[in-house]
Structure formats: structure tokens, C-alpha cells
Amino acid sequence: MVWIALVAALLAGIVALNVGALRLNMQAEELERQGDDLSAKRDALDAELSRAAAAGRIEAIAVRRYGLVRPEQPTYIRLARVEE
Question: DSSP label at 53?
Fold first, then answer.
């Protein structure tokens, strides 16, 4: 009779370990899914930021909203080198 109780206890322990491992696997899969979702959101935000910071868009806003104009030709100034 004692050996039946011992085998039953061992089997219950094995079942408990398997249930625990299954729960951990489910949590790991959920965390992996959340990580994938966050990566996709980050990529979408990176793309949105890239579009928002595009030079043509900024230039169009500067012209439309602030009345700025493009210079016809850039002007460069050469500074004399100061020797100490």
C-alpha cells in the first residue's frame, strides 16, 4: 500500500512539473508575441518619423506657413585663417 501512495505522489509531482512547464511556455510565447508587436510599432514609428523629418516636407512647411523662400544660389563666405 505504501508503494502505491509513493508512486501516486511521484506521478502527481510529474504532472505538477509538466503543468508548470506548460504555463512557462505559454508566458514565453505571450512575451514573444508582445515583443513582436512592439517591434512592429517601433518600425512604424521610425517610418513615420522619417516621413515627418523629410527635407522636402520641412521646406514646404517653411514656404507655406512662414513665407520663407529658397535661396537662388547659395553664398559661401571664406574666413581668413587667424594665426597665433
Answer: T
